[in-house]
Every structure is written in C-alpha cells, then in structure tokens.
Amino acid sequence: MRADDHVRVAVIGSGFGGLGAAVRLRRMGITDFVVLERADAVGGTWRDNTYPGCACDVPSHLYSFSFAPNPRWPRSFSGQEHIRAYLEWVTDTFGLRPHIRLNSEVESARWDNEELHWVIDTPRGPLTADMVVSATGALSDPKLPDIPGLSGFPGKVFHTARWDHDYDLRGKRVAMVGTGASAIQIVPSIEREVDRLTVFQRTPPWVLPRADRRISGFEQWLHSALPFTRAARRRLLWTIRELQVGAFVRHPGQLRVVEKIAERHMKRAVKDPQLRAALTPDYRIGCKRILLSNDWYPALAKPHVDVVTGGLREIRGSTLVASDGTTAEADAVIFGTGFHVTDMPIADRVKGANGTTLAEEWQHGMAALRGSTAAAFPNFMMIIGPNTGLGNSSMILMIESQLNYLADYLAKLDALGGRAALTPRPEAVENWNRDIQERMRRTVWNTGGCTSWYLDASGRNTTVWPGTTAAFRKETRTLDLGEYDVVRAREGAPA
Fold first, then answer.
1. Is residue 405, in this structure, part of any structural domain at all?
2. Number of domains into which the chain is organized
3. Is residue 359 a contact partner of residue 343, using CB atoms and an 8 Å limit?
4. Beta bridge partners of 12
5. Based on the domain organization, do 170 and 256 belong to the same domain?
6. What does the pLDDT look like over 353-411, one tens digit per residue?
7. Of 314, 335, 356, which residue is a domain's last?
8. Which InterPro entries does this one have (predicted)?
9. Which residues contact 166 (CB under 8 A, 6 or more apart)?
10. What is the 3-state secondary structure (H, E, C) of 161-210?
11. Residue 178, phi-psi category: left (phi > 0), alpha (psi -120 to 50), beta (remainder)
12. Domain range holding 449?
C-alpha cells in the first residue's frame, strides 16, 4: 500500500458481513473501496472453524444472501465446507477479489477531525478512508479461560476455532471443555477414535432433534429450473421462525412445550437416570442458545465417554481438576469456550473523534444506534453490532437489513455534498439503547434463569435483538438525519 492510499470505504473482514457490504457497494456503483482481511482467504468464521462435524444450525436456504441464492445446497443444514465454498462463489460471482486485501489485519483505525477521514494502519502499510464499515463479527476471536496450571500442561491444547489438524487424536485421552454449539458437533465426531473422552460441563444445554437430510437431486433441479420454488422454501423457513419470536421476547412460559420435546429427545438416548439428571438444564429453554443434534446424547452415553458436571478449575500436570473435585487424565485439552462477544477486540483498535477507543466508550456496556453506529465515531458503521444477534433465525437476514442502512448512509452523505461526515447524536444512541433494554426485560434471555454469552460483565444483554427480523428491517430501512449530527470540514482546511 502507498502512504497516500485513499478509498471512499474501507470494510474490515471478509465473512458474510464484509462480503455482503462489498456486494452492496458494487451494486450501488461504488468501486472505490477495499475489504481488509487479516487472514489469507475470505470466509470469516466459516474459514476459521474447521473442526470435525462443523455445520450450521440454520437451514441452508435461509442461511444465504437473498441476492445470491444457491439452488444446489446439498443438505438442509449445510456443513462448513459447503458454506465456505458458497462465500468463495459469492466473491467470484460479484467480482470482489480486486477489492480484497488479504493478510491486512487492521492494527488501528483513528478518526482525523481535521481531514474528516479515517487513518488505518495495517501490516502492509497505511491507508485512509472516508468511511469504515466494521464487519469483524462477534464469533471471530476465540476466548480461552484463565485456568491455573494450563501453561504447565504437557499435552496438546487448542480452541475449537483453531483446530490443529496435524494432531492425531486416535488412541488419546481427550478432554472437551464446554458444551456449547461447537462441542455438541465435535464430541460425536471424535468419540469413536479417542481412547477416552471427558466432557467438562459447566451448564448443560437444551438440545432439540436436528431435522437434517440430504436435499435430493430433483429438489436441486427444481429450485434451479423454477426459482419461485426456492423462494417459497426460503419464505416458509423465514415465516416459521418469525412466528416463534413471540415466545422468546414476550411469553417465555410458552417455551415449556419445547422443553418437553427436548426432554423426550434426551430420554430416548440416555437411559442412565444419573446421567440424565446431570444433562437436564435447570433454566428455561431459549435462555441460552438452543442446540440441535441427533448424536450428542448417544455419544455421551458411550462407556468411554465421561461427563463431569463441574467446570474445569485447575490443571496439575496431565491431571484436570473440576470445580467439584473430580479429576481426569488427559493427553489433549480442547476448549469450546466461546468467543469475545461483548468485548470485541476490534473495539480496542478503533479511536473516534474524542480520541478515545470504542472499548473505552463501551466500558459500561456496548451500545449502538440501530445496532450500527456509535456516538463520537463519525462515518463508522458496524455490521452485526450490539443487539443485532438472533436466538432462532438467520443472521444473514440481519446483515442484509444493515446493508440497507449502509446504502442509505452513503446516499445521505452524497446528498449533503462537500466534505461531510455523520455522527449519531448521543441522545439518539441512549434513547435507542434504553428502549432495547426495556424490551429485553420480559425476554427469555433475561428471565430464563441462566447466565449466557448474550450478557456482558454487568449482566446486561447487549447481544440479542428483542424482536423479529422484519421489525429490524423496518428500523434500518433508512437513515434518519434527525438522529445524526452533520460534521463539516473547518473553514480554511485543505480540500
């Protein structure tokens, strides 16, 4: 990169959010942009997560862009390799590769109040941009717990999102720490090859049957030849999930019916009453992410698989000690302990108009206007920002809504003319966030009796959207200039 490298828009990240933003820019006729990607390939979380059994828990025909339908998904729930291939196809189909700069991690981004642009530092050199779109995603930076003795463990240690394919698990004593969405896919995939598998469970998840199947060649042909059938399928999947939202956000008690389904699902596979008791959650279903699996419970019932109901407390050499004192020997420890969601690392690297970082502004909790823009950060927008997560549907729907907001943001800047920037008014951010938190009070995520990664350190839910995807699309269809201040270049400043 040249020292004088300048673009109109710099997009950070090349997952669904970043590639979606790039496509929208191209479709608007904007070609003066770059996508800055820290890795050596596109794909985001679907590039990074390559663990055994990795797959999506949202139906394929809903987990794809509406403007880039794929009539030939091979399964109703796609595996990692199929989703990553889809993102590569999107990249090529929409001519995005000339705009993508790989191995270009954003080390810092700071707003220049004089020049009204962003100054961005990367390993390949600096650049400036009129606008920054951060699409780093919430599930991009793995979180490892601070376990006493971990540094002295003589075996292999890695996180599920950084799977070591060179390490052979066959015949090993393996510890799986965590029972979240990754763990329930990994455990059934590796239990046949390991000598012994110990699962450290801090909190049992609610698990429902996974209605996965192969999509027949005829269905794929039909969706290709008659696009309205594909659209109808997507619409049906969307409608079912929209109808579920009321139970999550207004009437959590209705979810008791779903709990009964999950309980029967477990009882069919787990006959040991003690193990069944250990695997039964004590909180309302939906409070934590609902998981889908047909082989999780059968795997845990195997004689060489142990479930430890206390979280991992410490490690003494090759001995792992749980919070209840239970011990297990291990040759390898796999952490399925989630990601930095409410403390996204990118927030430490972005410095706004006040000279403070986004992390400093968010020290009391994340907050963004319409999940997209933060006060004192001009011409800065987040894709999948605070309170845009979902508990039951496809995040691609939320991303596309934010792309509408991005398009109108840029259109408003064009209409203003001259050198200008938009920054959300603090009171607008505060009002939006207050309303979100008020609506959150009745939801299952706040009343269900659990502690989840949806909540920040102070117990506030700054992650999930308390409504339907249709409602969010309505809220982000256009940018209301009344919620923003217009920043102009100083009189006499260089043009």
1. yes
2. 2
3. yes
4. 36, 134
5. yes
6. 999 999 999 999 999 999 999 999 999 999 999 999 998 999 999 999 999 999 999 99
7. 335
8. FAD-bind_Monooxygenase_sf, FAD/NAD-bd_sf
9. none
10. HHCCCCCCCCCCEEEEECCCCCHHHHHHHHCCCCCEEEEECCCCCCEECC
11. left
12. 6-141+340-488
